[in-house]
Amino acid sequence: MPEDNEKKLGFATRMGHGGRAGVKVHGFVNPGVHRGSTVLYPDAEARRDSGSKRFERYMTYGTQGGPTHYALEDVIVDIEGGTRCIIVGTGLAAVTVPLTAFLKNGDHCLLPDSCYGPARTFATTLMKDWGIETTFYDPCVDEAGMAALIQPNTKVVYLESPGSHTFEIQDVPALARAAHARGCKVLMDNTWGIHNFQPFEHGVDVSIQALTKYVGGHSDILLGSITTNSEEDYRTIRAASSSMGHYASPDDCWLALRGVRTMAMRLKAQEAASIEVAQWLEQQPQVKRVLHPSLPSHPQHALFKRDFTGGCSLFGVILDQRYDQSDMFRFVNALQHYGIGASWGGFESLALPTSGFITRTAGSEDLGGPMLRVHIGLEDVNDLIADLAQGLRVLN
């Protein structure tokens, strides 16, 4: 299919055809799984030249990837609109590899106070041990505020929009301008936005995805991606990833390729269901606030409407202040169709207590009541609402 025509195709069509040989090629619909460690060279000259750019995807050893990895990398580049992609074994590895690639002893990093918990732990443990200083900033800071936070040794401004658990939408273009004006790299965790936020159109240099979530879609793989918008950044991160021995299973890559075939439809269905559930929850007397960027009640809804083409299935719920954590636990324990689990993006609905399990240092953690995080799966939405209704009755 000509490249110009591919750009005109809809997202669902691209996901159905990306990483495949094509519909006119004799054989199975799905590509095969290529497993292996040892790769044989056709001759000694190929071994000599294998490190050159001309042989970049010339297989030299299993850890450098193979056809299954390359197919998934190309699909993720299509999803995010970048130029190059690296697949790693977990979403957390997709966070830590670029941080390691761009930071060294004596450098300074800015992370939003609402970032993914393990990213925070990495910054406060290993990065600290390596002599890298981290400042956790208010995720709602504006461009001038970000400029004031950047120090002479700041090398990375990290973004996560929406924020983990509390779902703050960041003004990514403004923060990227402030960062680039002072020579900083802009890294962003774009797992919630997946394809509804195009990071490179808004000034991001490196986009991070936990493919474990919507790309996998079935809660049975661990995988991450690092997508860049420049060849230079790709080579910097690729070198760090290779030096640390990061690798993703080709079997998991194959499952991710299978997952993207239905991802567009799943995202639409789960987003619509989540909005319906969130709107219902907003009307319940036991609920103080619903933190869903797609709702007009969200504090940064205007930014969401400006920068995103859609949302997803994950949002926060704050119960009324008359309840405490034990009440919230009783509510979650009473639910029949919501599992209590830390991941999201799969076919199953989840309700995860978050109050008491998150750390904030740049602002107040007290949101006025006990909080939980809800992920809406592919169950019947009427059943999910009915289950929440019977769970809320426990609070009475």
Write the topology of this structure.
Layout: H1 3-8, H2 11-17, H3 44-49, H4 67-80, E1 84-88, H5 91-102, E2 108-112, H6 117-124, H7 126-129, E3 133-137, H8 143-149, E4 154-160, H9 172-181, E5 185-189, E6 206-210, E7 224-228, H10 231-243, H11 250-282, E8 287-291, H12 301-307, E9 314-319, H13 325-334, E10 350-353, E11 371-375, H14 381-393
Parallel strand pairs: 2-3, 2-4, 4-5, 5-6
Antiparallel strand pairs: 1-7, 6-7, 8-9, 9-11, 10-11
Helix pairs in contact: 2-11, 4-11, 5-10, 8-9, 11-14, 13-14
Strand order of the largest sheet: 1-7-6-5-4-2-3
Under the CATH scheme, the architecture of the largest domain is 3-Layer(aba) Sandwich
What is the N-to-C order of secondary-structure elements (H for helix, E for strand)?
HHHHEHEHHEHEHEEEHHEHEHEEH
The CATH class of the largest domain, by name, is Alpha Beta
Structural class: alpha/beta
Averaged pLDDT: 93
How many β-strands, per DSSP?
11
> Looking at this structure, what is the CATH superfamily of the largest domain?
Type I PLP-dependent aspartate aminotransferase-like (Major domain)
Q: How much helix is in the residues?
A: 25-40%
Low-confidence stretches: none
User: Radius of gyration, rounded?
Assistant: 22 Å
- Count the helices. How many? 14
Note the beta-strand portion.
Answer: 5-15%
Largest sheet: 7 strands, mixed
How many domains, in number, for the residues?
2
